[in-house]
Amino acid sequence: MSSPTSDALLGPADVRELAAALGVRPTKQRGQNFVIDANTVRRIVRTAEVHPEDVVVEVGPGLGSLTLALLEAADRVTAVEIDDVLAAALPATVAARMPGRADRFALVHSDALHVTELPGPAPTALVANLPYNVAVPVLLHMLETFPSIRRTLVMVQSEVADRLAAAPGSKVYGVPSVKANWYAEVKRAGAIGRNVFWPAPNVDSGLVSLVRRTEPVRTSASRREVFAVVDAAFAQRRKTLRAALAGWAGSAAAAEAALVAAGVSPRARGEALTVHEFARIAEQRTAARRTDEPAPAEHVTDEPATDEQRTAQHEESGNQ
User: Fold this and answer.
1) Is there a contact between 195 and 301 (Cβ–Cβ < 8 Å)?
2) Nearest one of 42, 82, 61, 59 to 136, comparing CA atoms
3) Which residues, other chains included, contact 276 with Cβ-Cβ below 8 Å and sequence gap of 6+?
4) pLDDT tens digits for the chain (320 residues)?
5) What is the chain's Cα-based Rg?
6) Are the CB atoms for 109 and 90 separated by under 8 Å?
7) What is the pTM of this model?
C-alpha cells in the first residue's frame, strides 16, 4: 500500500475549486452538502474502524472528500454516485490526488436504490455521508442487498440518527429503528457540526454505527413478513397492537390471537416491542398459512415515507 500524504485530502478551497471547475452547485433536491474538512473525514474513517484489508462501498461520494480518506485506509473503495457530472469527475480526482491508489478505486454510476451488484470483491464495510432525503431507504437496501457488509458507519441528519439508534420505549423508536435492528446492532457514534459542510445545512448531523448481527434474528417468518408487521404497527402508532394490526391479521380478533400466541400483550403498542417480538408475531401468519387461513395482502416499505421522500425516492445523489 502506498503512503498518501495529508495533501491528498480535500480542504475548503479544494472543494470550491473543484465545484467551480465542474460547474457544480450543491442542490437541496438531491440533499447535497459537501464535506470540506479533512479532519472530519479522517474521524469518520477512524470511527468506522476501516482496516487495510477492507473493501469499502461508499454511497454519494460527491466530490471525493470521504473517498480519498477511505482510500488511505482500506484495501479497495467502490463509490456509488447518481449525479452525471460528479460520477464523471471523481475517477480523475482520485487519479490526480492519490495516483498510487487509483487502481484500488471503482466508480458505479447509478442510483444506490437500484444497485444489486458491485465490481470486484464483495464489500466488507459501508461508509457514507448519505443524502438526507433518502438516507434510510438507501441504508436498508444496501444492508439487504450486500450481506457481506459487516460494519457500517453512516452520517445522516441528527434526528434520523436518533431514530435509527432508538431503543424500544423511546419516543423516536419506530420503523427505521426496528428494520435497522433486524440487520445489525445499532448505536449513535457521534455528532458532526454544520460548519464542516459546504453549504452549511440547516440541521445537525450524526454518525450511526451498525455492526451486522453474527446470528440473524431467529424466526420462521421471512424478512418481508416481519417488516409487514412493523409497517402495520407503526402506521397507527397511537393505537394498541390489537387495533393497529387488525388490517394485517384480517380482524381485531385475529390480531389479538396472533399477539397472545406470540406472548405479546394485545394492549401494547409498537413502540414497546423489540425486533424479536415483531418476528414472533409474524410467525403467527406463517402458522395461519399452514392451516390454510387466508393471508391479508401486505405492503412493505423501508420507512414510512413523507411526501417529500416519495418524490425524492429516485432522486438519490451523492452528498459529501
Assistant:
1) no
2) 59
3) 217, 218, 219
4) 444 445 789 999 999 999 999 998 766 555 568 899 999 999 999 999 999 999 999 999 999 999 999 999 999 999 999 999 999 999 999 999 999 999 999 999 999 999 999 999 999 999 999 988 899 999 999 999 999 999 999 999 999 999 999 999 999 999 999 999 999 999 999 999 999 998 888 889 999 999 999 999 999 999 999 999 999 999 988 999 999 999 999 999 999 999 999 999 999 999 999 999 999 999 997 676 566 455 555 545 554 444 444 333 443 334 44
5) 21
6) no
7) 0.86
Residue 295: partners with Cβ closer than 8 Å, 6 or more residues away: 285, 288, 289
What string of DSSP letters covers the chain?
-----GGGS--HHHHHHHHHHHT----TTTT--EE--HHHHHHHHHHTT--TT-EEEEE--TTSHHHHHHHHHSSEEEEEE--HHHHHHHHHHHHHH-GGGGGGEEEEES-GGG----SSSPPSEEEEE--GGGHHHHHHHHHHH-TT--EEEEEEEHHHHHHHHPPTT-TT-SHHHHHHHHHEEEEEEEEE-GGGEESPPSS-EEEEEEEE-SS----SS-HHHHHHHHHHHHHTTTS-HHHHTHHHHSSHHHHHHHHHHTT--TT--GGG--HHHHHHHHHHHHHHHHTTPPPPP----SS---HHHHHHTT------
Instruction: Tell me the C-alpha distance between 182 and 207, whole Å.
Output: 19
Maximum Cα interatomic distance, the chain, rounded to a whole number of Å: 67
Residue with cell 458532526: 192
